IS30 family transposase
Amino acid sequence: MYRCYTQITLADRRRLHHLVAAKVPVNEMARQLGRHRSTIYREIKRNTFHDRELSDWDGYYSTVAHDISRDRRSRLRKLRRHPALRKQIIKQLEARWSPEQIAGRLLSDGLSRIRVCKETIYRFIYSKEDYELGLYQYLSEARRKRRPMRSRKPRDGAFPASHRISQRPDFIGDRSMFGHWEGDLLIFERPLGHANVTTLVERKSRYTVLIKNPSRHTRPIMDKIISAFSPLPAFARQSFTFDRGTEFAGFRALEDGIGARSWFCDPSAPWQKGTVENANKRIRRYLPGTTDLATVSQRDLLQLTRHLNDQPRKCLGYMTPAEAFMAHLQDGA
């Protein structure tokens, strides 16, 4: 009954105020509130109002008890009581360690006698007192405001079951047919802006296409893919396989624009589009995450794709992707 502990709420304290005023036994208070009796003892002892000048008003009052508890929790935050630990955590955040990594390392090293969980670090990052430090920018998604836990909306509506990779025909998976592509988005450091690069790789020939985008909005991204692939014959652009990023939620535009079907990986399974993932590793040699895309034009990306597509590949019998791609185009013409 008492295994899952939650902080006492203002509503609980209002009920407790009436029970204290009625001089109900502590065991009965605990039963009615669904709490352990020690919790009730501690609550009354710590949050009862005392004043030497107004001793007649001493007692347990719900709103006063709530304010006393809130003020105490604010004063006794671990990272304010232990400045050395606070400094160490800031240093690790600046090194782009996640709160979970920091908390886990502190525990495994045993260097600090104070135990800190990842939730304590998140609260520190987004607290009013320390928000001006801007520590949120070192988190993986650099959110200015913290997203409530479990608030992420499911994406099944955007990516229906009929387009799951499990429904994709086997001839796409075994690379026996030409004209089936995989797509992904290369993201760069947030302070450098919202620009990104769409990576598209044809599964059979390994031919690569790179498209620069000013943002992650799905419709402009789809429009650029349509514009880039429209000149190709229909057999060379039959389908695309993406992950479930919101930037690909406008996939129906591909069906309407160029008649290409879209397939989507299972959640958290990027390995299911391994061709483009491997291509991304090569591309990152030339476009690391620290690249400022404001200095990179679409013409620069075109030169990079030519360089990548002109490299012989073992999986192609040491043909280049450009040679394999042109051979398939000529065979299908």
